[in-house]
Amino acid sequence: MNVKSSSFKNEDMIPQEYTCDGSDISPDLEWDNVTSAKSYAIIVEDPDAPGGTFIHWVIYNIKDNKLPKNIPKVTKFSSMIQGVNDFGRVGYGGPCPPRTHPPHRYYFNVYALDVELPEKHGVTADELKSIMEGHIIDKGVIMGKYKRR
């Protein structure tokens, strides 16, 4: 499944607008439509974080094969449910690596699912991965980088 964004290209730098140094809004994303998919989920991960993989976004029950930028940071928006990121907040939390670090990589993992998942408030990435198990019919990723100045 091909994933793209008009906000940044795969393996390019993520603009400041989508980070803790800017407006901290989610970028737009678009991916191939999987005809048998009932819903999509997204987990954004930073594997370069000092304490191990850091979760920046958990969102699921996405009906369309695209998301506009700036999804509100609320648990339920339209049919979509947003979980808790590793900042301890609901919704998208943009890249915010330590200033002394080289660029970190941010993986926007998109999962096509054969079901709509049950609504669960405060879901973490690990919990979502467990709930999705056996229901992932396709997967795609776009990776962006960010370094603080």
Structure explained in plain terms:
By secondary structure, the chain is mostly beta strands. It has one helix and nine strands. The strands form two sheets. It has a six-stranded antiparallel β-sheet, covered by helices on one side. The chain has a three-stranded antiparallel β-sheet with strand order 1-2-5, with no helix packed on it. The longest helix has 8 residues, at 125-132. The mean pLDDT is 97.
Query: Count the strands?
Result: 9
- Taking all Cα atoms into account, the compactness measure Rg is 14 Å
Strand content: 25-35%
Cα(first) to Cα(last) distance is 33 Å
Order of helices and strands: EEEEEEEEHE
Provide the helix percentage: under 10%
* Mean pLDDT across all amino acids: 97
* Rough outline: globular
- Strands of the largest sheet, in order across it? 6-7-4-3-8-9
Summarize the structure.
This protein is mainly beta and 149 residues long. The protein has 1 helix and 9 strands.
Element layout with pairings:
Blueprint: E1 3-4, E2 29-31, E3 39-46, E4 54-62, E5 66-67, E6 76-77, E7 80-82, E8 104-113, H1 125-132, E9 136-146
Antiparallel strand pairs: 1-2, 2-5, 3-4, 3-8, 4-7, 6-7, 8-9
